[in-house]
Every structure is written in structure tokens, then in C-alpha cells.
Amino acid sequence: MPDSNCLNVKHLTVCYDRKPALWEAQVSIPQGTMTGIVGPNGAGKSTFLKAILDLIPATSGSVKFFGEDYRKVRHRIAYVPQRESVDWDYPISAREVVVMGRYRSIGLFRRVSREDRRKADEALDRVGMLDRADNQIGSLSGGQQQRVFLARALVQEADLYLMDEPFAGIDATTERVILELMRDLRESGASLVCVHHDLPTVADYFDHLVLLNLRVVASGAMNDVFTREQLTQCYGGRLELLSKLADSLAKLEALRS
Amino acid sequence: MNSPDSWILASSWLDRLIEAVRSPSYNLKVIYLGVTSLGLAAGVCGCFLLFRKRSLLSDTIGHSTLPGVCIAFLLYARWGSGGKSFIALMIGALITGWLSVRAVQWIKNNSKIKEDAALAIPLTVLYGLGVVLLSVVQDSNLNLQGSSGLEYYLFGMVASMIQAEAIMLAVVSLGALTVISLFFKELNCLSFDEDFVASQGLPHRWLDEVLMLTCLTVTIAGLQTVGLLMIMAAFIIPPATARLWTDSMPWTLAIAGFVGATGALIGAIASAVIFRLPAGAAIILASALLFGFSMLFGSRKGWVVRQLKVARLEKRLSENQLLRDLFDRLEAQQKVRLLAGLDFSSDLARVSLPVHDILKDRDWSQRKERSVARSLSRQNLLKFKRGDFVRLTTQGLERAIEVARTHRLTELYLIEHADVAPARVHQYVEKIEEITGPEIASDIHQLFSNELEQALIPAEPHRGGDTS
Amino acid sequence: MNWNIIDTWLLVTASLIAMACVLPGVFLLLSRQSMVAHGIAHAVLPGIVIGHLVSGGVETPALLTGAIIAGILCTVFTRFLHRFSGVEEGAALGISFTTLFAIGLIMQRLLADHVHIEPSHVLFGNLETAIFQVILEGGGVPDAAWRGLFALAINLVFVGFFFKELTITTFDAAHGDTVGARPRLTYYLLMAMSALTCVIAFEAVGSILVVAMIIVPPAIASLLTKKLKTLVALSLLIALFCAVTGYLLSLGFLGDTISGAMGFPKVGSTNTAGGISVVCGIVFVVTLITKKLANRNPPHTPGQRHDTKKENE
Fold first, then answer.
1. What is the dihedral sign for C-alpha B141, B143, B144, B146?
2. pLDDT tens for residues C252-264?
3. DSSP B137-165
4. Is C229's Cβ below 8 Å from some Cβ in A?
5. Residues in chain C with pLDDT < 50?
6. What ipTM was predicted for this assembly?
7. pLDDT digits (tens, 9 = 90+) for A114-127
8. Hey, is B383 helix, strand or coil?
9. Which end of chain A is more exposed for a tag (fewer CB within 10 A), N or C?
10. Which are the contacts of B127, defined by CB distance < 8 A and separation ≥ 6?
11. What would the mean pLDDT of B351-358 be, rounded to a whole number?
């Protein structure tokens, strides 16, 4: 019986190399929702995304997408990393970046077809970047770059979109475009999980919420979670000790490896 | 390149070795002095390059000296007395070496080309220029005296080092070390946080120049004697080696200097002993071996040291686990919640406890049980009784209480603040507590001092044994 | 100036090799691994020596295999030092290739002295000799030229087939991993190709000057264009230009100018590889300066926003 959750995380503990830690994170996200992940700085939000995508190693825990291991359903998942992670001086155009998202269906040794380019253009159109498809990415503004990244995820035609701070540092137009797009995706049955940087807007944008601060404080439907007590618990409190404990664990693992 | 086999007359390599170490010939002594000074200076200066992530700059500088050397040679042949004038060549090398550093900066400031290419482009272009000039120098039309062998500057002519050169190297080395020690504080700051230095109004550009010039001088001094490759390696390998031993800057410099000097000496000796072994390469290899040794045994990051640390931690972990288990059993048997502090009944210390039975939930081998118990008894924390029984000493009881309390509080903390399920908290706390030691213990105690009576020990937050 | 068949072949070989180098060079530049090329160029020496020893001569396949292995070893060591002992990446590279090179030198001197790997030729190359000998022996296409052609061909094939993978993994390896582009594998393949190209070019232009051709033409092209395919094409053209010009100037112009400037009698020809390298450098500097001057007075077209966004970085 297929799992009705797009993401099921149990006991995820990550103590890796001075990155913010995660303690026994436990999250279940139903399909067809738009989930925001919020928390203070250094709370481990990016760590969470990277750990479930197996980009950094976890100390313990299990992660299931649509009831299966990541490896089995990779083709159904699209990842939009933070903008800073990329060298924007790279000599490629917006369209070429978007085409990269089609790689999985193109595969080794085969060339980029007209169909691929058409789909890329479609995606660019959806994010309103078609007229700049040939621009080199470095000449784009932050918001435009973000939209290109999003288009790259779109062409993967995924069922689950994982995004790291898609709304950070962008202009109002881009914000509107991205939000509309995300809602369209949800309407068509996809699920979205986004690390969000801005607490005030999270309730407007998303219908589900995960409060993260080195561990999952609360997760569930927005109305249930977005309450004063939960927020205080997430954003208040000194968790220095928790970080220290995580550091110790990381040190021990580093010694052992 | 050339090895000094001409003056080691003994026939077998062992004899040669003994002779090279015990009673080196004059020429050998000269070489020892020269290369050791160089290794020392380069090792020390290289530390600052390493900290600023510019190790490969020494490569660029080194390669860019070739054109300078050639131009100087040509000019000197034209307007001077010709031949290989040491000073002239050095000046030439200094100029182009300095130019290359400028070029790297210029490229980075005026284009989007990144650091790696900014290093590679001057390196290779200037070197190419040098090669062109070299072929001019060696052209038979010119018939310049002393022009042959100029290219061997790449490998150096350690074997033919003369006294004057060795002394020059020693002097340069001394000079470099003096400069470093004069500006040690500032250079330290500079390497750590360049922006801070600039913001403090310290002349950080100038400091940078000083550092570069010092490195440059050492490079050029060594170039003709030990060759480009060895000099380059001398800036890179010893500092990296030193970092495997220590975190403190002064010690890093000291160890780097030591490794540089020792590697140089060993390489020189090896080259004297083994026929045809090129000295420069031997020195590099010797330094690399020291590095390899440090990778294993270095006190900060050596593999062996890490394993030892882990073993030690595991041992303490096991000891504390036994203590805790003994305490748990005591608590259960006596059916009391104990008070810490000195007013516990010392009778408790006389209760005999069956070790093997207590440890049955842990997957320990017989040997391990024995050895941990013995270790505790050596520390006077428990005493063996007849058969399988032990009893805690007063000290042991105190310790057991302490350990149990910290453990339980940490578990409580994780359960409350990290939402770790009680059944799972145990495996983490087991791993953590030994690394953290007293600092975290006191943090934990402070946190809970409001919620619990200071003297109380909470009940076991989780039920049962390990769930790992 | 006497031009004969030898000169033609020299020119052809130099051009082929220059173009072959540029292909892996573009991706090394884009993934900020220029110094890795330098490292590999040094590190291939022990591989070549072992290849000589194993094959007892100058058999190319043995050399190539030895060199590729040595080149990959260099990158493997670098990563290992970084991961295992936390050595900073630049230093790790420096340690790896100097040690490998030293080992190569030692092996060559102690074990393979009879084999003609003149240290200076390792570093400066000796294109002239390579070609000269063949021509003297009766004409036809010299081996070096064949090797140059082979290098160019194999690189074209590699870049052609793996273009997508190379682009994706040099641009955004993390995302590439999630779409199955196999960044790690691509990386090692790139290293292998670089090592192979290094060793083929090695005989002609020496291992260190190879770096000039691997990095400088792509760097020049990167100043001129923001399109990847154009970058590759432009790099090839620039490499060709520098090779031809460098060669021609080395026939006499460079030598005469230098010696003349210092008041010496004319020298005639100078080392070809060096000349090519110098031309690369001149073109680079000229391009950079021209670009700077052009940007100071941006052409203003009314109605079009001039993008000065990331100019002064």
C-alpha cells in the first residue's frame, strides 16, 4: 500500500563537521502539501534537507520518500539548493541551466534534444524568464537566478520539490511568480518542502509547518503548529548545550573514522 | 642531480653512511650547513603561506625566477664580467619573482579569474619566457661563458655547493628568521584574519610585502643551490607536517623549522651515501617521509594518536558504565533513592555485588568484564571479593554517584529539550559523556539545579538497558 | 629563412597538441582546478619512468598507462591528505605532486638512467629532436605528429560525449548528484584525460609548459565570452593562434629581439614551447587590458540598460 506521506523521517540525528546539528528529527509530511521549515539561524534547516538527500552523512535515522528509500525514488524528487552554493560566473545561459534538470531523462551519451529544449523553454516561461533564456546567468539579478533554479527543478517533473530558502533575497515580482508557481504545483498534486527564512510570511505561504531548532520542535498543519507556545519553544531558549553535545558527538565520530 | 660521490671514498654504503654522519668531509659539512639553513628558513616562512591558503604561491614564485636569472645572466655577460655571478642572478630572480606575485594580484583584481588560475598563469607564462631566454643564453652564437648548466638551477647543484654559498644561505636564513620573529605578532594576526588587521589600521599591505619579500629571498637563495623543486617543497611540506602536531603558532613554526632542517639533513646524507641519488629529490622524499610519519603519529591529528584517544575514551566509557551499573543495582537492592554528599551510609560501600550478573545486559566478553573491573580496582574504586563479587569503596561510591547523576541529567535534558525518545536517549549519552568531561557535566548540573534538589539524583529516565 | 618539411611538421604537431590541451583545460579552469593541471604535469614523471622500465623502451601505451595512473594517483593523494589528515587543499596538492615528482626523479636516476629521459627535456620538451629524427629516417608523418593528432581526437571524443556531465558537475556538483550526473566519476575521468594529454604533450613541449596551453587559452577565452560552447571553440582558436605565432616567432624573431636588445649578436631560433607560452601570455595581457579599457567607457545604447552588475569583482 503506497505511503500517503511524501516524506517520513524518523530519528534523524546529524552531527557533521561543525555544521549545525540535528537531534532525532521526526517528521511526517503528507502528499499534496506545501510545507515550510523555519527556525532560528544555525538551527539545522539546511542540514536537514542535505541529510535527507544523502548529501551529508547522518549519524542515525531513517528517511523514506513515498514509502521508499531515496535511491529508489530519486527521479521523483527535485532539489533546489541555495543560490550561494553556485559559481554564477560560469559561462552558461539560463536555458542551459534549466536543461541540466532534464539530465536524468537524457542520460549518458545522448544529446540534448529539441524536446528537451522545448521543455526547458516551457519551464522558463512558467517562471517568466523566457525572454532572458539566452542571458548568461551572472548577468541576472538574484530573483531572476532563483527563478532559473526553480525552472531547472520544474523540468524534472517531480512529485516532491525540496527547496532551500527559495524566497531569500529576491524581488517582489519573483516572489509572486514563485509563490504562484508553487501553488500550481500543489494543485497538480505535487508536494513541496521549503526551508523558509522569514517567519512572518510562513503562515501565508504554506499550509504545513515544521519548527526546527536543532531538533524538531513541532510539525503538522499550519494552524496547529503556528501557535505562540510552539513558536516560543522554537525561537526562545538557549540551546547552547545541545550544540555542545552535538559537537562532542561529531568529534567522537571524527576520531573514530 | 649530481651527488657528491666523488668525495666519499669508502666503498660500502654503510661505511659511507657512518662517514657521512660521524666525520663528514669538509665539502659535506658545507652542504649540511647550506641545506639545513634553507630547510629551516623555508619551513618557518612557509607556515604563513599555509595559513593564508597560499601554499602554491611558492610554486609560482619559484618558476618565475627563471627569466630573471637568465636576463641577469645576459646583462651581466654583456656589461659585467660574465659568468655566473651569484649576486647578479639573485637580483634578477628577485625582480621577476616579485613581479610574479604582483601579477597574481593584478589578475585577481582586474578580472573574474579566480585564485587558482591567477596562480597558474604567471607561473607558466613567466616560466615559458624563462625557457626562451635560456635558449638564448645557451645559444652557440653567443658563446657565453658559464652558460651551460644554468638550467640545472631547477634541480640545483647541491653537490657543488661551495663555502661561500653555504654561508650565504645561513645568513639569509638567519635574516629571514629575524624578520619573522620581529613581526611575529603582526604576521600571526595577518594570517589569521586579514580584515581585522586592516581595520585596526595596522599597515597590512606593508606587512604582506614583508612576508612576500622574505619568502622571495629565501626562495632565490635556495634556487641555485638546491633547485626549484626542493625549495618549493620546503615551503609546503614542513608546515603541513607541523600542523599535524600542534595547534599553537609558535610551536608550528618551531616544528616546521625542525622538520625542514632535519629533512634537508637526512636527504643530504642519503644523497652522499647512495650513488647517484639526486640531492634535491632526496631531501623532498625525506621531508615527505617525515610528513608520512606525522600523519600516523602526529600528536594532534596522527592516526595512531586518534586511535589511542578513542581507545582511552572507550576505556573510560566502559569504566563509567560499570560504575553506573553497580550503582543502579545498589539503588534497586536497597530500594532507596540515595542522597549525594557525604551523608550516605557507608554501609552501602560494603554491599557485595555480583559483577557478571550486573553486566549481563551489556554485551561484554569475560575478558572485558575482568579488565574493566581490574582497572577500577587499580584506581581504588572497588575491591574484589570472593567469587564473582565486588564492592565499591567509599571513593568508588562517590564516583559512581557522580557519574550516574550526570548521565541521568543529560538524558533528561535530551528528552526534554531535544525531544529524544526516552528509549533512544541512552545510546547518545553513552557516547557523549566521556568526550565532554567536567565542562558539560557542570553545565548540565547548573541547568537542573533549579528543577531538582541539588543533592538528589533523579531516577533512571529510561527503563531497562541499552537499545543500541 | 629556410622553411622545410621539418618546420611544417613542427608547426602541425605543436598546433595539434596545443588544441588538444585546451579541451580538458576549459573544464579544469571552470572547476577552479588550474593548479591541479600543474600538479598532474609534474606527477606523471614516475608513471613515465615506470612505463619505460616496464616496456623496456619508448612504447607509448605503457607510457600512457603509467602516466594516467600517476596523474590519478596525484589527485587521489590530494583528496586523501585533505580528508584523512585535514591538510589544506593547496598544500595537499603541493605535497602530492612534489613527492611524486621527486620519486620519479630518483627512479629515473637510479633505475632508468640508460633511458633517455633527460630531466631538462622532461621540463622543457624537445619538439625539435622528436621530429628531426623521424624525418631524417626517411620521411612520412613523424610519430610526434600522430600522437598530437591522437591526443586531439581523443579529447574531442571525450568532451563531446561527456559534455553534459562535465558541464553539470563543474557548475553545480550537488545538484548534479541528485539528477544522476555522477560528479565523482566525471571528475576522475577529467583527471585521467588531463594526465593522458599531459604525457602526450610531454615529449613535445615538456610537462610544465603543457600547463600554459591547458590554462591560458581558456582563460583568455573566458575574458571574451560568456557562452560555454563559444568558450571551447574560442579556446581552440586561440591555442592554434598562439601555437602558430609562437612557433613562427621562435624561429628567429624572439631570439633576435632579445639578443639584439642586449647588444648581443643574433641568436636565431629559440625554444618553441617557451615561445608559445610567451605568446599566450602576451595575448592574455593584451586581452585583459583591452577589456578593462573598454569597460571604462561602456558603449551606451539608448533604451538598453547596461549591465554593470558584476564588473568590479
1. positive
2. 888 788 877 777 7
3. HT-TTT--TT-TTGGGGGT--GGG--HHH
4. no
5. 303-313
6. 0.87
7. 988 999 999 999 99
8. strand
9. N
10. B63, B64, B66, B67, C208, C209, C212, C277
11. 78
Taking contacts as CB-CB distances below 8 angstroms, the residues of chain B near A251 are 435
Contact B160, B30 (CB under 8 A): no
Count of residues for chain C?
Answer: 313
- Please give the helix or strand (H or E) that residue A160 lies within, else none: strand A160-164
**Contact residues, chain B, for A216 at CB < 8 Å:** 419
What's B29's domain CATH number?
A: 1.10.3470.10
Q: Closest Cα to residue C60, out of C162, C120, C130?
A: C130
Is any Cβ of chain A less than 8 angstroms from the Cβ of C172?
A: yes
Q: In this structure, what are the phi and psi dihedrals at residue A61, rounded to the nearest 5 degrees?
A: 120, 170
Determine, yes or no, domain membership for B236. yes
The predicted structure's pLDDT at residue C196: 84
Concatenating the DSSP letter of every residue in chain C gives ----HHHHHHHHHHHHHHHHHHHHHHHHHHTT-HHHHHHHHHHHHHHHHHHHHHHTS--HHHHHHHHHHHHHHHHHHHHHHHHHH---HHHHHHHHHHHHHHHHHHHHHHH-TTS---HHHHHH--HHHHHHHHHHTT-S--HHHHHHHHHHHHHHHHHHHTHHHHHHHHH-HHHHHHTT--HHHHHHHHHHHHHHHHHHHHHHH-HHHHHHHHHHHHHHHHHH-S-HHHHHHHHHHHHHHHHHHHHHIIIIIHHHHHHHHTTPPP-----HHHHHHHHHHHHHHHHHHHHHHHHHS----TTS----TTTT-
CA angle C237, C239, C245 (to 5 degrees): 100
Task: For A102-117, write each residue's pLDDT tens digit.
Answer: 888 887 778 888 988 9
For chain C, positions 276-305, list CB contacts with chain B under 8 A: 276-278, 280-281, 284, 288, 291-292
Residues from chain A that touch C165, judged by Cβ atoms under 8 A, are 108
> Nearest Cα to B28, choosing from B1, B3, B62, B11?
B3
What is the number of domains present in chain B? 2
Strand ranges across the sheet with A5-14: A22-30, A5-14, A60-65
> How many angstroms separate the CA atoms of A38 and B167, rounded?
66
Q: What's B467's DSSP letter?
A: -
- Domain of residue B150 covers 19-301
Measured N-to-C along each axis, helices B366-378 and B303-334 cross at an angle, to the nearest 10 degrees, of 90
Contacts of A22 (CB under 8 A, 6+ apart): A12, A13, A14, A15, A44, A47, A48, A51, A212, A214, A215
**pLDDT greater than 80 at residue A132:** yes
Q: Which of B301, B333, B366 is the last residue of a domain?
A: B301
Chain B: give the shortest CA distance to residue A184, in Å. Answer: 35
Same domain as B312, residue B294: no
Q: Which of B277, B301, B325 is the last residue of a domain?
A: B301
Taking the C-alpha atoms of residue B334 and residue B346, their distance in angstroms, rounded to an integer, is: 13
